[in-house]
């Protein structure tokens, strides 16, 4: 008979726990602590989802802007240059996953205009072939990339670099390359006067250091050489590029080495990913604090409900049933906080750009200056996998927080309580 009653009480444990959570007859101080616990869970979950979405947005912006100029893969000579690059290009384009190939020569140089000096990277390209491997032609905001095919030494440079040198289309700059020209008077650094015929802008760091010249001019200025430094490749899938490049490396001679974008730019994106993990752990501590508040709420609730616990035990409730009641009591508070926080965080993540714009207009300030941050608004990308992970982690922390107070409630001896009633 006793076992049957205990089993019945266990079945009703969730309903009793819910009644304890939302009853209006609770102690006022306990109610305040319970409300603070729920609000802490709401703020923790909402802030975690919002910040993760913003981190995703920054990652996508970074990936889209930088990889718009970075080819999917590279084939370079281990020593010297690639002489017969046309034949190699035909061999590479025969691969089913390779869409386009473009030659390049690159070197670090110094740009000068009057007293303004800036270090940068000068890359010689074929404008027509370059259009197949990157979005450079679409990124030119003044002038044109095709001007590099014209006779003479023309240059297309990043918008930030042009701004730092105070030049625009039609102006001239001096470029000094790490090569020596030997004359009867001695050895001098090689320099050349270039005409600015285009300015590109992708809204990322390449705007501040990258410049392009034609392939023929580059062979003279960065050479002399007959070949090229290597070939840039575009594949049919950016994220499958590492597999494609590994496949190509098995078909090419050992004198050539193969790289993909994850090797040349991977450290940057790994840093962004690690930053997202660290920020997640820091904000998860807010959720952990809210979960520990649930411990305080349940301990006070156990002290307040000692008489009810004793009555239930005398009616046949087992220790497991008492534990289930207070676990349900704590989880009810946590689930409400997690649900409201997830909804609020999702709404904030979807509308963070509009909210940022409203704040800027309201206080007449510019939070994100494009000249400094390369963006004009706060990017956000809500991933439901992040929402599920946050909700699951918050639920687990809340569940762990309920175990000790529930265990304490189950250990209350009914005789000791009822003796003084």
TrEMBL record:
Record bears the keyword Cell membrane: yes
Residues in MacB-like periplasmic core domain copies: 35-238
ABC3 transporter permease C-terminal domain location: 282-414
Membrane-spanning parts: 29-55, 277-303, 324-350, 382-404
Membrane topology category: Multi-pass membrane protein
Protein's recorded name: Lipoprotein-releasing system transmembrane subunit, LolC/LolE family
Subcellular location: Cell membrane
Protein family: Belongs to the ABC-4 integral membrane protein family. LolC/E subfamily.
GO biological process terms on file: lipoprotein localization to outer membrane; lipoprotein transport
Keyword Plastid: no
InterPro entries named in the record: ABC3_permease_C, Lipoprotein-release_system, LolCE_TM, MacB_PCD
């Amino acid at each position: 008979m006793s076992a049957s009653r205990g089993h019945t009480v266990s079945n009703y444990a969730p309903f009793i726990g819910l009644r304890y959570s939302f009853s209006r007859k609770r102690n006022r101080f306990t109610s305040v602590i319970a409300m603070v616990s729920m609000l802490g869970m709401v703020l923790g979950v909402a802030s975690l989802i919002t910040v993760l979405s913003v981190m995703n947005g920054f990652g996508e912006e970074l990936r889209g802007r930088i990889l718009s100029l970075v080819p999917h893969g590279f084939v370079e000579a281990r020593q010297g240059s690639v002489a017969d690059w046309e034949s190699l290009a035909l061999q590479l384009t025969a691969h089913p996953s390779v869409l386009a190939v473009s030659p390049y020569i690159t070197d670090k140089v110094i740009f000068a205009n009057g007293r303004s000096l800036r270090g940068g990277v000068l890359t010689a390209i074929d404008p027509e072939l370059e259009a197949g491997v990157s979005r450079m032609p679409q990124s030119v905001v003044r002038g044109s990339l095709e001007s590099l095919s014209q006779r003479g030494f023309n240059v297309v440079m990043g918008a930030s670099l042009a701004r730092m040198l105070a030049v625009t289309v039609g102006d001239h700059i001096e470029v000094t390359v790490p090569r020596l020209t030997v004359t009867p008077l001695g050895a001098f650094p090689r320099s050349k006067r270039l005409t600015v015929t285009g300015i590109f802008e992708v809204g990322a760091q390449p705007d501040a250091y990258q410049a392009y010249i034609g392939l023929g001019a580059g062979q003279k200025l960065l050479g002399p050489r007959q070949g090229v430094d290597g070939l840039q490749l575009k594949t049919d899938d950016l994220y499958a590029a590492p597999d494609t490049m590994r496949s190509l490396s098995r078909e090419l001679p050992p004198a050539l080495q193969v790289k993909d974008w994850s090797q040349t730019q991977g450290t940057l994106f790994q840093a962004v990913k690690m930053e997202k993990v660290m920020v997640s752990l820091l904000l998860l501590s807010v959720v952990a604090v809210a979960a520990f508040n649930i411990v305080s709420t349940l301990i006070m609730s156990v002290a307040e409900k000692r008489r009810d616990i004793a009555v239930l035990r005398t009616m046949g409730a087992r220790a497991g049933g008492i534990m289930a009641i207070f676990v349900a009591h704590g989880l009810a508070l946590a689930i409400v906080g997690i649900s409201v926080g997830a909804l609020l965080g999702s709404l904030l993540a979807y509308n963070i750009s509009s909210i940022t714009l409203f704040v800027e207009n309201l206080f007449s300030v510019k939070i994100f200056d494009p000249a400094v941050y390369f963006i004009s608004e706060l990017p956000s990308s809500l991933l439901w996998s992040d929402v599920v992970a946050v909700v699951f982690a918050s639920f687990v922390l809340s569940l762990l927080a309920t175990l000790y107070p529930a265990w304490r409630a189950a250990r209350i001896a009914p005789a000791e309580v009822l003796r003084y009633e």
